[in-house]
Amino acid sequence: MIRAYKFLMRPTVGQTQALGEMLRDHCSLYNGALQERRDAYRHVSRTSVKYGMQSAQLKEIRAFDPECQGRWSFSSQQATLRRLDKAFRAFFRRVKSGGTPGYPRFRGVNRFDTVEFPRDGDGCRWDSTPHDPVTRVRLQGVGHVRVNQHRPVAGRVKTVSVKREGDRWFVVLTAEQEQPKPLPATGSAVGIDLGIANFIADSNGGFVPNPRHGRTAAAKLEAAQQALSRFPRVRRDKRTGNHRRAVEKVAKLHGKVRRQRLDHAHKTALGLVREHDFVAHEDLRIRNMVKAPAPKPDLEQPGAFLPNGAAAKSGLSRSIMDAGWGVFLTILTGKAESAGRVVIAVDPRNTSRACPECGHVAKENRPTQEKFRCQACGHTAHADTVGAINVLRAGLARRNAHQG
User: Which stretch, 70-79, 94-103, 298-307, has highest mean pLDDT?
Assistant: First the structure.
C-alpha cells in the first residue's frame, strides 16, 4: 500500500529564498505551457498540444534560460507539465459528461504552492538515518534542508513533494509499504450520522460535539480581513511591510482553523476505527449541499428577482463546510483500510424519517431538529440517533448482500 507522510522543514534564510524561487520558476513553466496550449488551439487550426510535445521542449527551455529553468530538477519540471496535462484531461472529461467544464487557469505565484519530485534520488534525496537525530532532504538548487521528522517512515520512499503553507514549508513523502497488521477484532458495528448540532451521532446513542472551529475564529478572521481590505490592491513585489504582515495574519488564522479541523477529524476517526470492526455512514453529496440556490426571476417585473432563501442557505453552507465532513470521511476510510476495518456508505434518503421500531416513514415523524416521534407506533428518540440506527441497518444489509 502507499502511505503519505508530511513533515515540517526548517530551511535557512537562503534556503527559504531558494524554495520561493523554485516555486516561482515552476509556476512560470506551468503558465507558459498553458499559454502555448491556448495559442495553438486558437490560432493554429485548433491544434491540441500534448504533454509529450511540451516535455520534449524542456531541454531547449533549460538551455535558453539556465539561471531560472536550468537549475531545477528536470523530473520536477516534467511533473509540473503532467500536472497541467492532468488539469486538461479533467476539463475534457467534465465537458463530455455534461458537468461544469472549469477550463484550466493561469496560476499566480501565491497560488502555486507545490513542486513534486516523481522519484526519490532524481533531483531530490530523502536522507533519514535511524540513529541520526537530524533529518535532511536534499533538493536540487536548494541544498540539504533540515526536517522535523516526528515519526519514522516505513517502507521505500517513492515520491517527494515540497509544499508551502503560509510562511511554513513542508516535505510530503509517499512510501510503498506492506499492508499493516489488522487491529484485533472487537465484534462491534456502528452507524454514524453526521450533523451540525452534533458532529457525530452513533447508533449506540453516543454523540461527538461539533467544535465549530471556524465560528470560534470568525471574529478574529473578520477583524484581520477588514484590516487587510484597507490596503490598495498592488503587485506582490510592491507591497509595504504592513500589507505583507496583514496578509500573513489572515493566512495564519486560516491555517490554524484548518489544522484544528484536521486534528479533530483524525482523533474522531481513530476512535471509531479502534472501537468498531464495521462503520456505516451516509453517502453525502457535500458539493451539492453547499451549492448556492438558483435565482428566481420575477416574471411581473423584468430584471427583478424573488427571494430564494440564499441568505439562510449561506449560513447553513458555512456550517457544513466548517464541520469538514468530507475531510473526516476521507480520513476515516484511510484509517479503516490500514486497520483492516470495513467502512460502507449508504443512501441517506429517509434515514432520519423512518421509524427503527415499526418502519413507518413520514416527514411528520421528525417535528424538530432533535426530536423523533413516530406517528404510527409512538416511538420517541433523538432524531440523529434514529438516523444512525437506520444507517447501520442499511450498511449491514449492503454488506451481507455483497458477501452473499
Answer: 70-79
Distance in angstroms (rounded) separating the CA atoms of residues 324 and 129? 37
Q: Say if residues 122 and 78 touch (Cβ distance below 8 Å).
A: no
Q: Report the chain's mean pLDDT, rounded to a whole number.
A: 91
CA distances from 176 to 1, 4, 116, 282 (A): 6, 9, 17, 31
Give the confidence band of 178 by pLDDT, cuts at 50, 70, 90. confident
Q: How far apart are CA 204 and CA 192, in angstroms?
A: 9
Same domain, 65 and 164: yes
161 φ, ψ (degrees, to nearest 5): -130, 145
Strands ordered across the beta sheet of 207-209: 207-209, 198-202, 189-194, 278-282, 342-346
Q: How far apart are the first and last CA of the chain?
A: 27
- Long-range pairs, 361-365, Cβ under 8 A, ≥24: none
Domain that holds residue 318: 189-403
User: Would strands 114-117 and 2-10 be described as parallel, antiparallel, or unpaired?
Assistant: unpaired
> At 400, which helix (H) or strand (E)?
helix 383-403
Q: What DSSP state is assigned to residue 307?
A: -
Is residue 183 domain-resident? no
CB 398 within 8 A of CB 344: yes
Q: Report how far residue 277's alpha carbon sits from residue 364's, in angstroms, rounded to the nearest whole number.
A: 34
Does 144 share its domain with 208? no
- Cβ–Cβ under 8 Å, residues 383 and 400: no
One domain for residues 140 and 287: no
Report d(CA 53, CA 63) in Å as an integer. 17
What pLDDT, on the 0 to 100 scale, is given for residue 140? 95
- The cell for 5 is 507522510
Round to whole Å and give the CA distance between 285 and 175.
31
Same domain membership, residue 167 and residue 197: no
Q: Give strand ranges (E) for 234-379.
A: 278-282, 296-297, 305-306, 342-346, 371-373
Dmax (CA) of the chain: 80
